[in-house]
Amino acid sequence: MKHTLAVLVENRPGVLTHISGLISRRAFNIESIAASLTEESDTTRITIDVEADDELELEQVVNQLSKLINVIKIINLTAVDSIHRELAMIKVKANPHTRSDIVDIVDIFRAKIVDVNRQTMVIELTGEPSKIDALCEVLIDYGIIEIVRTGKIALSRGPVPAKDM
Amino acid sequence: MKIIGAQAVIESLKNEGVEVVFGYPGGKVLTLYDELYQADFHHILTRHEQGAAHAADGYARATGKVGVCIATSGPGATNLVTGIATAYMDSVPLVAIAGQVEVPLIGRDSFQESDIRGITTPITKHNYLVKKIEELPTVIKEAFYIASTGRPGPVVIEIAKDLFGEVFDYQYPEAITLRGYEPVFAGNEEAISKVVEELKQAKRPLVFVGGGVHIADAAEEIREFLKLTGFPVISTLMGLGAVPGNFEQNLGMAGMHGTYAANMATTECDLLLGIGVRFNDRVTGLLEKFAPAAKVIHCDIDPAEINKNVRADLRVVGDLRWTLAQLCKMVKELEQTELTERVTDWNKTVQNWKTEKPLTYEQRPRQIMPQAVVEKVSQITQGDAIVVTDVGQHQMWVAQYYNFTHKRSLLTSGGLGTMGYGLPAAIGAQIGLPDKTVVLFSGDGGMMMNCQELATAAELNLPIKMFVINNMVLGMVAQWQRMFYGERYSHSSIKGKTDFVKLAEAMGVTGFRATKPEEIDEVIAKAFNTPGPVLVDIWVAEDENVLPMVPGGATLDQMVLEG
Fold first, then answer.
1. Parent domain of B423
2. How many structural domains comprise chain B?
3. Mind listing the pLDDT tens digit for each residue in B210-256?
């Protein structure tokens, strides 16, 4: 099963090396990782999507990550009501014949067109990773030139921040 | 006070109570070495940086204090790596200080530059690269705190060269805050009650002690617990000495080269109480069939150890000194015989295993048996020595045939299995405990891996008694080749022309040799009666196997008992 972990870490040099090094040497199955600044300047938040067969495997991931000195707190956001989003930008082939079809698709997905030229369009979409997958699937027919995705970020609903959970 | 970075390092070391450092100078630590010289700080010059790391490790294991080593950037620091990894696997508190090229030169493949922080990330508890002088005191304070608390481990501090000469306003912090690091001491009392309930239910309980007991300094507590419960006990390699070898309930070491009784008891027990153990593959055999009948209780300070290898039915996360003290307290509240009487039959069974199939080896009239050497040294030292080993067959024979009676009396690379560990670790141990007898067992393979440190031992006139169990082969490799590779001895013969006695003498160490069984008693006595460092080259049977042996992938009760 896939779990989304919010990992709060010290905003210091080398932290990402420690995290990625641990994930690789313990052979944890990570699908996505995204790091960013937070409301506190000394804290970085890393959202990790990890695939774990059972509770024990997940517990190992959490316990091993927690051992890192710069890891302050880990919250499993899969266990609480939370919002999951990813941002993608997709560059797709678009000529005068296909352009309006693509615009229709973009509308259906509530995506945005952020760049157009004579040969291509860049589409921006924010949503659950599965929604982005679905859009990419449809756009394949038109010819995708390149895709960039941020990796998933997640936030709990309700007033309590992860640091206080 | 206004001082330079190099002075700040020394001041900080003094503040941490560091009495001695092990190291090797070089370009990027010249300023630091200049200050060591001017401050007349106690520094042990090894002959290789790996020696410095192992010596600091041996010092730490023997004394319980943090070991400190210093090396220059690049190759100096990479030479520390094996020593740091060794300390990491065995949870040894170590602070390694490495030079780094000047801040403006970092990242430009400068002369003697390597990314030591990156290299040591997987093998340290934590590491730092200091590029701003004002961060230096806090980093050092944190490093010592992290290395020595909770589950100890090595911490690397890389310091850019220009910082050593930079003047700044030095102040050593009194306290530090680490939001992400809070080592536990006391655990959950409710968990303790649950454990005691299980102890009361068990018909065939078994206590399993590991190196964590030494680290937590809980040998007295575990001995008391065993007396109170009457339960039999087994040990990992790292746990040896926590319970005296000749203690009746002690079944000895478990695992690949464990005793018959220990491995049978593990297989048959219905409750396994693991205390400060990692359930490493050398001790479990085939993991799926490990202790198949047992409920497993796991007590450790590191929550990440729980369920890492063996699934625990109950856990107590806390300092073992706390855990064992609580267990003793609660067991004392029970009827005095409530636990001991329950296990009478079980104790008879395990004692039968012990007497039925004790550790044994074949005596040969013309060849020295390595086990006999260990037994003789054990007899002479009466367990009152710090015993250091290298890695391989001799290490296992020491584990099997030396009667360990004291805590922290065996220093051995258990987790990483580092050949070349023994000699420098013995040097560190002798520096830390100058009045103790330090005995080194090494092999002819391991001895060669860091034999340059004979020069260090000689220079300092350290009275280490070194026994080279010389079988002219890489014994453990040859044993596997004999047992599992159709006797194809691929590159395990090291019959060369090395004369260990001459090697010792060339380095300034007294050398003796024994080649026949009748010479053993005399040469060992002579070694102990000769002042200063002594190396005894003992030619032993080449084809002797370490037995019992659980072959890789087999269960613990599938031991090979005879060759």
1. 370-539
2. 3
3. 999 999 999 999 999 999 999 999 999 999 999 999 999 999 999 99
Of A9, A14, A63, Cβ closest to residue B304: A63
Residue A116 has, within 13 A of its CA and on its CB side, a CA count of 10
The two three-digit tokens of residue A130, written as one number: 């599965």
Same domain, B304 and B444: no
Alpha-carbon gap: B27 to the closest alpha carbon of chain A (Å): 25
Does B563 score more than 80 pLDDT?
A: no
Note whether A63 contacts B180, CB cutoff 8 Å: no
Q: Is B67 helix (H, G, I), strand (E, B) or coil?
A: strand
SS (H, E, C) B127-182: EEEECCHHHHHHHHHHHHHHHHCCCCCEEEEEEEHHHHHCEEECCCCCCCCCCCCC
- Judged by CB atoms closer than 8 Å, whether chains meet at B306 and A10 is answered as no
Say which CATH number the domain at B85 has. Answer: 3.40.50.970
Cα→Cα distances B361→A161, B214, B401, B536, B551, Å: 65, 30, 11, 22, 19
Place of tokens 């939370």: A82
Give the Cα separation of B543 and B541 in Å (integer): 6
Whether B305 is catalytic is no
pLDDT at B335: 87
User: Is residue B401 predicted with pLDDT exceeding 70?
Assistant: yes
Distance separating alpha carbons of residues A53 and B502, to the nearest angstrom: 59
| Alpha-carbon separation of residue B260 from B257, B336, B471 (angstroms) | 9, 31, 26
Q: How far is B117 from chain A (nearest CA, A)?
A: 9
Report the first-to-last Cα separation within chain B, whole angstroms: 68
Q: Does A56 touch chain B (CB under 8 A)?
A: yes
CATH code for the domain of B209: 3.40.50.1220
**Two tokens, residue A115:** 């760049």
DSSP for residue A120: E
**B389 and B302 together in one domain:** no
Which of B329, B356, B383 is the endpoint of a domain?
Answer: B356
Q: What is the CA radius of gyration of chain B?
A: 24
CA distances, B350 to each of B283, B337, B357 (Å): 18, 19, 11
ipTM of the complex: 0.90
Q: List CB contacts (< 8 A) between B146 and chain A.
A: 69
Q: Is the pLDDT of residue B326 over 80?
A: yes
Task: List the domains of chain A with CATH numbers.
Answer: 2-76 (3.30.70.260), 83-153 (3.30.70.1150)
Q: List pLDDT tens digits, range B154-174.
A: 999 999 999 999 999 999 999
- Is A66–B181 a contact, with Cβ atoms under 8 angstroms apart? no
Calculate the alpha carbon distances from A162 to A63, A82, A88, B487, B522 in Å.
17, 11, 25, 60, 70
Summary count for chain A: helices (H), strands (E):
4, 9
Residue A77, pLDDT score: 95
In this structure, what DSSP letter does residue B557 have?
T
3-class secondary-structure state, position B438: strand
Inter-residue contact B9 to B29 (CB < 8 Å) = no
| Closest Cα in chain B to A74 | B180
Cis, peptide link before residue B370, omega less than 30° from 0:
no
**CA-wise closest residue to B237 among B255, B264, B220:** B255
pLDDT in tens, B339-356: 888 899 999 999 999 999
